[in-house]
Design a protein that fits this description.
Number of domains: 2
Strand content: under 5%
Largest sheet: none
Shape: globular
Structural class: mainly alpha
Length: about 325
């Protein structure tokens, strides 16, 4: 059973496991701010000694020369990576919401068309999720017709002024998961049209690209957990999908090794952002990502840096 340990006791535990702590005052301040579990348990793996000759009993032991500052550098890298990824994924989230609302409303122009089951896919296996989406949208409107205790005053103000709330307003208050589900249950013609919109945007600024609805589904299934992990401050650099997505045709179009984009690594997400962002935005993102990696390379021992890069997917080939 785990028992409480003071910051000094935590430092002693780390030292007993071979971690060098040359500046205990700084380490104490870091542990006070960042939490031992989040820092050490989240980021110790690349620094642990796993060579059976040097650690025959498989104990938690740090490689010779590993310092507290090395773990903290990886922690800071991951925090900045989360912020960087989240900023770009929010742009993609706004983009997909805009395209979905525009294309659906263009096709179904009547008021509250998004509340009509007949305007969605007719495939039976999509009906359960379709009904959930319609209920979510209906409840979002209903709850904001009241005069008090509203979650989003903007919805109530729009309703008071116009006596209805169109889809292009409501999508701004849906999560990426909800808009992903919405996209999955609309009819296939609309799904293909929206996927084509992304391909056309990319093709205008880069090389020709095609994108199918099933591929956009896969991209959304990769982007969704990244957006949530980045927003909720979970360890990001070593995340990958438990079951890779099939994006081999997109790999080929972008001249990447087969399987590169579908694994759901940081490398995959960075490659997908090239497709999902404006060229100027992606170039800025790429420069910032390179900066973060270079700073980490300078801060870590070579072996640990290599392990981190393999976890991100950048050193797999």
């Amino acid at each position: 059973m785990k028992v409480f340990a003071s910051h000094d006791e935590q430092i002693m535990i780390l030292q007993n496991r071979g971690l060098l702590v040359p500046d205990k005052a700084t380490a104490r301040r870091v542990l006070s701010r960042e939490n031992y579990y989040a820092l050490i348990d989240g980021y110790k793996d690349p620094f642990l000694e796993r060579d059976e000759r040097l650690n025959p009993y498989g104990q938690e032991k740090y490689r010779t020369g590993t310092e507290f500052g090395h773990i903290y550098a990886l922690y800071r890298f991951d925090r900045e990576l989360r912020m960087l990824m989240l900023g770009e994924l929010l742009k993609f989230e706004k983009n997909i919401k805009s395209k979905v609302a525009y294309r659906f409303s263009e096709k179904f122009k009547e008021t509250d068309s998004f509340l009509q089951a007949a305007n969605y896919s007719l495939e039976v296996d999509r009906h359960h999720e379709r009904d959930r989406i319609i209920a979510t949208l209906a409840n979002l409107i209903k709850s904001h017709k009241k005069r008090d205790h509203v979650k989003y005053p903007e919805i109530r103000e729009f309703f008071d002024k116009h006596r209805n709330v169109p889809l292009w307003v409501l999508v701004n208050f849906l999560s990426l998961g909800q808009i992903t589900n919405f996209y999955s249950v609309i009819d296939d013609d609309l799904r293909e049209r929206i996927a084509a919109d992304f391909a056309e945007e990319f093709s205008e600024e880069n090389e020709p690209l095609s994108l199918r609805a099933a591929e956009l589904d896969a991209i959304l299934r990769i982007a969704f957990p990244y957006r949530n992990k980045a927003a909720h401050e979970e360890v990001l650099y070593r995340y990958r999908l438990p079951h890779p997505e099939d994006l081999r045709d997109v790999d080929a179009l972008l001249r990447l090794h087969a399987g590169s984009l579908g694994k759901g690594t940081v490398y995959s997400m960075a490659g997908l952002l090239r497709m999902l962002l404006a060229k100027e935005e992606y170039n800025s993102f790429s420069v910032e990502l390179d900066r973060l990696m270079q700073e980490l390379k300078e801060a870590l021992p070579r072996r640990a840096y290599g392990a981190v890069m393999r976890d991100t997917g950048f050193r797999e080939d």
